[in-house]
Amino acid sequence: MTIHVKNNIHWVGQRDWEVQDFHGTEYKMTKGTSYNSYLIREEKTVLIDTVDHRFSHQFIQNLAMEIDLNTIDYIVINHAEEDHSGALSALMEKIPNTPIYCTEAAIDSIVGHHHHPEWNFKTVKTGDSLDIGNGKKLIFIEAPMLHWPDSMMTYMTEDAVLFSNDAFGQHYCDEHLFNDEVDQNELKEQCLRYYANILTPFSSLVTAKIHEVLSFNVPVDMIATSHGIVWRDNPTQIIHQYLEWADKYQEDKITIFYDSMSNNTRMMADAIAQGIHDVDPAVAVKVFNVSKHDKNEILSHTFRSKGILVGSSTMNNVMMPKVAGMLEEITGLRFRDKKAAAFGSYGWNGGAVDRIHARLTDAGFETALSLKTKWRPDGNAMRECREHGRQIAKQWALHELAKTTPTNHIGITPAAVNDTPTDTAVAAEPAPVQVAAQTATANESSHPADCQCMICTVCNWIYDPAIGEPNQGVEPGTAWTDVPDYFLCPDCNLGKDVFIEHKA
Ligand code: FEO
């Protein structure tokens, strides 16, 4: 199957709806991908890139149905990674003397993968051109580290198409080829996921390369990537988006991720998140358990965040392995201009938190004070965590924090609010009087002043002795002291330790 791209250019690539893993299992593909190869038929016939090696047979068969393979004059390999040059061995078996245009570095990696040093390589550098007839040329632009040292882009004059290879692509599979034909939310999400997880370490090179290409002052009518869609509607939008992402990108967002042996560190994460929200309701806060959530999504949120909080239980005096793995990835991704802090629960030593703090500092984050809790956090410890969140929100605020009264945090007792140091220079604490008034208004009908209710400090679920919790065998009329120790909050699954008296 081929798809017409423009004039004498056709897509001859391969869709891969099923693929889930890339780079081993390091990159989870949630929307498949495509391996885009392009056939140009001017006076000369040119093939730009091939497809993943797993589709070699299908690719050659498809191509042979379109043209006599012997009529291919030139092959351009923009990048040697096997998802683009993978079908080269099968193709070169059919047309062994066809010249392959690529960078000097690509010869090393193509030979390293295919073991055919005798192939007819033609080395090109930035600015070199290849006449393909009908008044058109291919101009080559080296793009080292976008994505490998061998990477380059190829620009076709007259048609003004930039074959950008990995750059500006996405792991995204759709029956449509062009950017204006697909779901825009999916497209944007996959573009960001791709940049955040693959290209972030090379952001300074991205900026330099884009400015170099722009300095050529040539028209760009389409950007034909090697994965996902072809940008034909306002193609420079993705160039400008890359410039924004490459420039120490951050949103008013905080990402919290952790792993937790016994839920204790999770309780801390929840309370810290609530504390952030108390002080800065506008900031986006995302909380992830690294052992349960898609790692690449967490990294995408990290990319978008102004700061991250990383938590782990202490296990054998070190952090839990999935947290360590995330920190290794984050170190490699070389995020810039972001803040970070460590937290976690421990039993007899708190080595995990210290190690996380050190790793975050080494990875280039501006680190804030860490927070440790011994064993399962009790009510006081939960208040400390929440206060920690408030302080983080103030320290990391991107805007002046307005005096606001929380409307949905009735779990903050007046006493807890009064315990909170006020930092009027940066932000105002919630007004205790107003919180108390709201609490009374919200509950006075069902919770009289002398009620014996208890409230979960994590999710604000209220235990009313008059109702009990029949689902856990706690009959109506059961006082809190008689509720069994195995009781769990029905909303957040945490134990009795996190409950405090509900002040009506
Ligand atoms: Fe799509 Fe770097 O390969």
TrEMBL record:
Signal peptide: none annotated. Residues 451-502 form the Rubredoxin-like domain. Residues 254-393 form the Flavodoxin-like domain. InterPro entries: Anaer_NO_rdtase_flvorubredoxin (IPR023957), Flavodoxin/NO_synth (IPR008254), Flavoprotein-like_sf (IPR029039), Metallo-B-lactamas (IPR001279), ODP_dom (IPR045761), RibonucZ/Hydroxyglut_hydro (IPR036866), Rubredoxin-like_dom (IPR024934), Rubredoxin_dom (IPR024935). It comes from the Bacteria. CDD domains: flavodiiron_proteins_MBL-fold, rubredoxin. The keyword Flavoprotein applies. SMART domains: Lactamase_B. In the N-terminal section; belongs to the zinc metallo-hydrolase group 3 family. This is Anaerobic nitric oxide reductase flavorubredoxin.
